[in-house]
């Protein structure tokens, strides 16, 4: 019987929580965008004329194929993160794409149409140097991989190793390049820095060394960066110190030293401090490279040169020119060169490679985004038109990782914002009211009421009502107008101008800060990028903190966001203040921050313009307020004694608390030191400031109330032991009051280790750790209660809470690894909470907090049933219907952001990683919304039916009464 | 009265307390715990200092000494002097301006055998509002928190009651002697998933089910008579309705 009850209780609880998306709801509330990251290699499929494929390998270890007409993904392969999945080289021949992965660990061949793996070979250990396709008699048959001390040749169709040979003197010579001109030999080029070059010739058939020679080159430090092979096996190198070009026929026996050609003799000069770059092209791996090549002499100076009969002749000088690239279609090779046109645009032109002559009517105008970065890579796709002239399209990558695909005469075919593959932090901001809504709001403003009398107020009210009526009529007209048009032609384009808050505040502005320093404003409903702003000169190791200082609620003041950009090494920071709706930089003067910033604090104190005050604490514990008007400083002086903040120094294990003084200096008031020899602080988290808790306690089975310990100043500190032995390692959790420094609770999870993910909210902390003894992930939940009585029910003060809370804790097994953890958040906190768990599989699990309740009983009792507690089970279930993103997996999910909406039942969720996924979750189902399939017709027909029935029966009753009276 | 005063002057107050010393041995990974217990130490003491200044610049003075008792019965005792006339006045003045009463202890390891190791530098400080200390008549609760290795990581002080209502404390006697409760709290071991009791419970239930054959009967076996009765009833009613006898109702 008890077993049945247990099952009943579980199924009852599931009734509450089970929620899944119906088939027709797919894509209705949610969207996903897939990204690939910064492009490292890009190759166009020139195999057939009609091919739309574009193959890309990126720094995020993604290998993908894009549709070059639309920019959509054909397929994408996401490899392991870190050096293990690093893509070293991408080569393409015909339908095959050969990729070297993980510092030369794996050699893979992909079928490019569907993205299937054809073969994979594990290579010998050794750090990767170079890879090249090797052809024999006009057919490319092999791929050669050069490692630090060995070279191997593989069959292109099967991946089987033909031969592998050790390189001679590999401990002194740095082998860096492979060259093959299709003549049955593979040449390996190595360099002994500032001494000589080594050239080793291998026979393709069996790997026999045919020839080995060394050539004096005392000026050379690296082959890879300063040399290229042109023409029929001529090694060409450039040196900036001697201002010369050097040539060497690789296979000639007579010439034993490099021939020097002074750049002066060609009337050229390298700009000091710039490392010149040589670019050659080898259209067919089975044939020698072309004799034309580009030489870049300064950031905006390229020159096309030709090597002929041992002489170098300039074909065309491109000055200024930002970028230059070769492209081949059939037998014709062209060069595309991007030159600046004016301040905002560049022009790209096509030149024939062999003569340097410009092709007519081939200009593409590239408009540079004023809010974007400069172009830094150019990829050209050349094709033959019907009239046998060469047409082309280009893909431009800019500093801010935007990929733009252009065709003549400058039409942007598509654009991808690859910066979004690396979102660092985000916020959601309410959209502003429309003009009419704002008008109404403004009417009830305090200032207006004081200034105006009664009559003007009435008039104002009437006028605003009239405006509303007008807007409503306009809306009706638009509905009518749209209804007449065919459905497909009605475009729901979202632009900034039409953006306004919807009825339930479900549509918001997503602010995303990316690692490259580009900010995005994205409409949460459709995923459309509404604005973007590239912040230049952002150090790659910067940390960002996004703060919403003023929301949209304070019309007519525009909303205001502040981004703190901090250099991780120096700690020096700067502020960027902007309007989150339009992305415009604010004109407000920003305080200079000459000292490293340790901590920021957003106070609930607002200035006269309704902006919340941001306090920045520097390394001398001095406080800078922003904004720092007189009004703010006055308020700060008044409230200084109740402003506390904490600092964490994890290198010394020190947590310290400070109090603000009236002169904006600070005083140390508490200090907790956790010895770093034993454990180190890995994370500290407070609660979210916009969190609401609806009920102060929990009603127990016996109708008494267990009050929650709701300390808004509580900090959860997670530590990990320095000893990583599986028996002795532990994870510590310390709950500290951020005002008084009082340790409220201290617990250790033994035989556990990180990475720890945790959520701190309401009166609970949930954390996930790795149990090193049982080798599994475990969840643990801590809940804090004041007990059956509240100490002070009206207000919480950290200074006046003498009794420590009761702490309950329980742990569970979680049968999956975890990437990230977050809790849902709703407007008033009435809706039950769910935990959103980002899994490495890309799914996002919505786990009811009900399952993570330390009061789950061992044995079912009458009272626990009354309270709706699920009996304790050590293993946490994972149900597929709890995956909020059904099959829309989010690759490498790194963070989940939750925001409340205007509907209490609804929480907006954004998961970001390599992809971005936005959806809504309803932890307690949609209790405040009528269902989509709600039968309006039935209910209204029943209503009308009843109405008419009463009318008729009334009439009938009257007649009957009359008849009776007559009788 | 005077007698008591004199006595209390002579007496230093000893407040002692219990503590939750759950796993002091494990902090050095269980290897040396036995030695630590066996070696007989008379314990050691560290100073407890306090500071209360009207200008709110901390100047720490000795308040008392914390005596740690090593060995099997771990304990901490606080012997402290009573407040002087001057201190009492200062404390009241500080309370009047809503100043802070701070205390601090040096960072120490309670693991007695580690005393000889390098002494970690620095202090652990905390505070309480001076007014609440005055209003509670110097009754405070001081807690020392240690980490797994027995190192003191934090100190906290609360007064009972903790509020500041602005009550005047007239009697000087109330501000002479600290009424302190002191304790040392070591981290508790967080629970792990309890699989064994769960499996046991499941087994018990299975057993119970096996013992009780009533439970194992199928749905039909249990309710066959009801189903049969229902079917008979349905058949009876349907056969009763089929003859055209409805006309008799009309009258």
TrEMBL record, chain A:
InterPro entries: Beta-prop_EMC1_1st, EMC1, EMC1_C, Quinoprotein_ADH-like_sf, WD40/YVTN_repeat-like_dom_sf
Cellular localization per UniProt: Endoplasmic reticulum membrane
Annotated GO CC locations: EMC complex
Keyword Thylakoid on entry: no
Domain ER membrane protein complex subunit 1 C-terminal stretches: 761-966
Annotated keywords: Disulfide bond, Endoplasmic reticulum, Glycoprotein, Membrane, Signal, Transmembrane, Transmembrane helix
Extent of the signal sequence: 1-20
Biological processes annotated in GO: protein folding in endoplasmic reticulum
Membrane topology reported for the UniProt record: Single-pass type I membrane protein
Residue ranges of domain EMC1 first beta-propeller in the record: 20-418
Highest taxon, organism lineage: Eukaryota
Subunit annotation: Component of the ER membrane protein complex (EMC).
Family: Belongs to the EMC1 family.
PANTHER family named in the record: ER MEMBRANE PROTEIN COMPLEX SUBUNIT 1
Listed name of the protein: ER membrane protein complex subunit 1
Gene: LOC113068366
TrEMBL record, chain B:
Signal peptide stretch: 1-22
Localization per Swiss-Prot or TrEMBL: Endoplasmic reticulum membrane
Keywords linked to the UniProt accession: Endoplasmic reticulum, Membrane, Signal, Transmembrane, Transmembrane helix
Topology versus the membrane: Single-pass type I membrane protein
CDD domains: EMC10
GO cellular component, one term: EMC complex
Record bears the keyword Membrane: yes
Record note on quaternary structure: Component of the ER membrane protein complex (EMC).
Family affiliation: Belongs to the EMC10 family.
Protein name as annotated: ER membrane protein complex subunit 10
């Amino acid at each position: 019987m008890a077993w049945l009850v247990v099952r009943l209780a579980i199924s009852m609880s599931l009734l509450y929580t089970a929620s899944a998306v119906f088939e027709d709801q797919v894509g209705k509330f949610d969207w996903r965008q897939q990204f690939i990251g910064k492009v490292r290699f890009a190759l166009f499929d020139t195999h057939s004329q009609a091919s739309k494929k574009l193959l890309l390998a990126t720094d995020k270890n993604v290998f993908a194929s894009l549709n070059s007409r639309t920019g959509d993904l054909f397929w994408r392969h996401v490899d392991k993160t870190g050096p293990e999945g690093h893509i070293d080289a991408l080569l393409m021949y015909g339908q095959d794409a050969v990729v070297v992965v993980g510092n030369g660990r794996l050699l893979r061949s992909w079928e490019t149409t569907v993205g299937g793996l054809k073969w994979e070979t594990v290579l010998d250990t050794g750090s990767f140097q170079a890879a090249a396709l090797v052809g024999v008699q006009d057919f490319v048959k092999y791929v050669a991989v050069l490692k630090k001390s060995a070279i191997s040749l593989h069959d292109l169709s099967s991946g089987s190793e033909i031969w592998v040979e050790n390189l001679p003197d590999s401990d002194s010579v740095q082998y860096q390049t492979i060259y093959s001109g299709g003549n049955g030999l593979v040449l390996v080029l190595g360099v002994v820095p500032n001494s000589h070059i080594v050239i080793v010739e291998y026979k393709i058939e069996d790997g026999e060394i045919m020839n080995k020679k060394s050539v004096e080159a005392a000026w050379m430090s690296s082959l890879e960066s300063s040399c290229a092979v042109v023409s029929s096996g001529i090694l060409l190198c450039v040196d900036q110190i001697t201002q010369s070009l050097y040539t060497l026929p690789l296979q000639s026996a007579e010439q034993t030293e490099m021939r020097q050609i002074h750049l002066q003799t060609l009337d050229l000069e390298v700009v000091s401090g710039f490392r010149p770059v040589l670019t050659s092209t080898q259209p067919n791996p089975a044939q020698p490279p072309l004799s034309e090549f580009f030489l870049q002499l300064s950031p905006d100076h390229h020159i096309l040169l030709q090597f002929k009969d041992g002489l170098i002749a300039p074909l065309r000088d491109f000055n200024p020119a930002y970028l230059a690239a070769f492209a081949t279609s059939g037998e014709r090779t062209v060069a595309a060169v991007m030159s600046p046109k004016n301040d905002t645009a560049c022009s790209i032109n096509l030149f024939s490679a062999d003569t340097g002559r410009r092709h007519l009517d081939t200009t593409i105008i590239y408009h540079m985004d004023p809010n974007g970065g400069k172009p830094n890579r150019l990829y050209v796709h050349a094709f033959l038109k019907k009239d046998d002239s060469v047409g082309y399209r280009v893909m431009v990558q800019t500093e801010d990782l935007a990929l733009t695909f252009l065709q003549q005469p400058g039409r942007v075919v598509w654009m991808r914002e690859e910066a979004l593959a690396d979102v660092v932090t985000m916020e959601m901001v309410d959209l502003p009211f429309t003009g009419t809504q704002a008008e109404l709001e403004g009417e009830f403003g305090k200032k207006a009421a004081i200034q105006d009398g009664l009559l003007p107020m009435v008039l104002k009210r009437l006028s605003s009502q009239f405006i509303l009526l007008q807007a409503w009529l306009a809306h009706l007209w638009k509905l009518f107008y749209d209804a007449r048009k065919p459905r497909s032609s009605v475009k729901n384009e979202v632009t900034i101008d039409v953006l306004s808050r919807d009825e339930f505040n479900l549509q918001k502005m997503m602010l995303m800060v990316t690692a490259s320093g580009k900010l995005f404003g994205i409409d949460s409903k459709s995923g459309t990028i509404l604005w973007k702003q590239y912040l230049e000169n952002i150090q790659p190791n910067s940390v960002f903190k996004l703060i919403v200082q003023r929301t949209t609620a304070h019309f007519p003041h525009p909303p205001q966001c502040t981004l703190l950009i901090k250099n991780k090494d120096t700690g020096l920071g700067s502020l960027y203040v902007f309007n989150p709706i339009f992305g415009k930089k604010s004109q407000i003067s920003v305080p200079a921050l000459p000292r490293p910033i340790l901590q920021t604090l957003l106070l609930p104190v607002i200035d006269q313009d309704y902006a919340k005050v941001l306090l920045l604490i520097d390394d001398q514990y001095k406080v800078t307020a922003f904004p720092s008007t007189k009004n703010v400083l006055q308020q700060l002086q008044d409230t200084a004694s109740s402003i506390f903040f904490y600092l964490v120094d994890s290198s010394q294990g020190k947590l310290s608390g400070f109090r603000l003084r009236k002169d904006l200096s600070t005083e140390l008031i508490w200090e907790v030191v956790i010895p770093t020899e034993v454990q180190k602080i890995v994370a500290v988290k407070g609660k979210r400031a916009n969190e609401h808790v609806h009920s102060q306690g929990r009603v127990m089975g016996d109708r008494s109330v267990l009050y929650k310990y709701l300390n808004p100043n509580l900090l959860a500190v997670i530590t990990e032991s320095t000893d990583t032995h599986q028996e002795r390692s532990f994870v510590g959790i310390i709950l500290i009051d951020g005002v008084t420094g009082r340790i409220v609770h201290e617990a250790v999870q033994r035989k556990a280790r990180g990475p720890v993910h945790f959520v701190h909210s309401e009166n609970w902390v949930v954390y996930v750790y790795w149990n090193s003894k049982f080798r599994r992930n475990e969840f643990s939940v801590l809940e804090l209660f004041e007990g059956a009585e509240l100490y002070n029910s009206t207000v919480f003060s950290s200074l006046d809470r003498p009794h420590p809370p009761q702490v309950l804790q329980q742990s569970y097994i979680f049968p999956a690894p975890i990437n990230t953890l977050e809790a849902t958040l709703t407007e008033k906190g009435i809706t039950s909470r769910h935990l959103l768990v980002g899994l490495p599989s890309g799914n996002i699990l919505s786990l009811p907090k009900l399952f993570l309740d330390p009061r789950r009983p061992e044995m079912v009792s009458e009272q626990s049933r009354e309270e709706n507690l699920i009996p304790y089970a050590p293993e946490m279930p994972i149900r597929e219907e709890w995956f909020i993103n059904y099959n829309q997996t989010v690759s490498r999910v790194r963070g989940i952001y939750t925001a409340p909406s205007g509907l209490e039942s609804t929480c907006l969720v954004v998961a970001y990683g390599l992809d971005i996924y936005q959806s809504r979750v309803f932890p307690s189902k949609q209790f405040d919304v009528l269902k989509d399939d709600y039968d309006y017709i039935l209910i209204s027909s029943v209503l009308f039916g009843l109405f008419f029935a009463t009318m008729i029966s009334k009439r009938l009753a009257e007649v009957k009464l009359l008849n009776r009276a007559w009788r | 009265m005077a007698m008591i005063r004199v006595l209390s002057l002579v007496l230093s107050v000893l407040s002692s307390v219990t503590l939750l010393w759950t796993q002091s041995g494990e902090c050095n990974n269980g290897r040396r715990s036995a030695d630590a217990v066996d070696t007989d130490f008379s314990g050691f003491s560290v100073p407890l200092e306090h500071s209360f200044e009207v200008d709110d610049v901390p100047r720490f003075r000795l308040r008392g000494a914390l005596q740690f008792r090593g060995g099997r019965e771990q304990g901490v005792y606080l012997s402290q002097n009573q407040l002087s006339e001057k201190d009492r006045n200062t404390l009241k003045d500080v309370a009047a301006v809503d100043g802070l009463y701070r205390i601090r202890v040096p960072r120490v390891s309670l693991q007695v055998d580690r005393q000889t190791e390098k002494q970690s530098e620095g202090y652990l400080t905390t505070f309480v509002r001076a007014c609440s200390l005055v209003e509670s008549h110097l009754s405070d609760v001081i807690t020392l928190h240690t980490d797994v290795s027995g190192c003191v990581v934090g100190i906290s002080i609360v007064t009972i009651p903790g509020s500041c209502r602005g009550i005047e404390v007239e009697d000087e006697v109330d501000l002479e002697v600290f009424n302190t409760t002191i304790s040392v709290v070591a981290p508790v071991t967080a629970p792990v998933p309890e699989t064994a009791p769960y499996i046991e419970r499941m087994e018990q239930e299975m057993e119970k089910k096996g013992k009780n054959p009533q439970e194992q009967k199928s749905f039909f076996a249990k309710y066959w008579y009801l189903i049969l009765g229902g079917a008979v009833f349905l058949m009876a009613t349907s056969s009763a309705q089929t003859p055209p006898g409805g006309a008799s109702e009309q009258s």
